[in-house]
Amino acid sequence: MMKKNLSIGILIYPGCLGSEVFGFRDTLEIANALAAASAKTEIDISLFRARRQKVKLSGGETLDCPYVPRPAFDIILVPAFMFVNIHDFKSRLDRLDAETRLLANAPKDGTELVSICGGAFLLGKAGLLTDVRCTTAWFMASLLQKMVPAAKVKANALIVTDGNITTSGAFSAAFDVAIHLIKKFIGADAAQKTLNLGLLDGARTSQGPYADQALFTRKRSDFIAKVENWLVANMQKSYSLENLAHYAAVTPRTLQRRYKKERGMTPLEYLQSERIGKAKELLRMSDRSLQQISNDIGYEDISAFRRLFERYTQTTPGAFRKRFRRPADELRR
């Protein structure tokens, strides 16, 4: 049987995450080996760089992979890069001109582009995400939306394909993207065998269950802090924009405008995200019933709670608890 070869080039650049580069590559190599006898397609994986100098990865390893200024791969994979804060992130992204120039020209040759985690920002900088449905690491979604206002960012999505561009979530999505491509080009059987061999989870479809805004403390103005503290303190009560505006000593219209300008969302959207965060904590850490949890976060109608929870996490409260619940002995401590 004549096999078709599919070429994938992994773009290596200064500071990129080796875990994504090699985790992705090795997963595809395993699938090639498992499906060697029966697959109609074999995937050829290469590492390449867009600059003449050798490249140092985030962990300090230096790679001397081929310099390919005009690649002819079927697919180019763009990993994310390490950063320590938002200033460092923007500074590093600004230094990746060689890579973004290469990416900007790739679609003209019919090349498909796939990004992992913050790799989407290179696509955005290259001007490739305008009017494109996309995702990135859940904690960077608002930053991507701010950087590319015309992008259609799906913050909780794990993998999004729009035309010849595929984007994915936080860094372990490297394995999900690899399985996605294995299933698409080699076959579902090879994908399942790779999942089994690698102890990988092929069932997740969303970043939503993992998103935890409490991991990050954002700088807030006194006005925003006052508004958000009131919302959290009154989480169990029905939301009232008028009551909140009265507490903040502004008109409802001014409140909406000022809050959205600084936060990029409405006060109600912030409250809903806080409610879902609290619900996830209670589902993981307590024995409270779904109705009790619903009441705890301000919903007497459990069906309204279920709908909101599914919208934010793409799973049901019951399924979330089953998957993420702490062991009973830990709950009793």
From TrEMBL:
It comes from the Bacteria. Keywords: DNA-binding, Transcription, Transcription regulation. Pfam families: DJ-1_PfpI, HTH_18. It comes from Sneathiella chungangensis. GO terms for molecular function: DNA-binding transcription factor activity; sequence-specific DNA binding. InterPro entries: Class_I_gatase-like (IPR029062), DJ-1/PfpI (IPR002818), Homeodomain-like_sf (IPR009057), HTH_AraC (IPR018060), HTH_AraC-typ_CS (IPR018062), INH-QAR (IPR052158). Residues 225-323 form the HTH araC/xylS-type domain. This is Helix-turn-helix domain-containing protein.
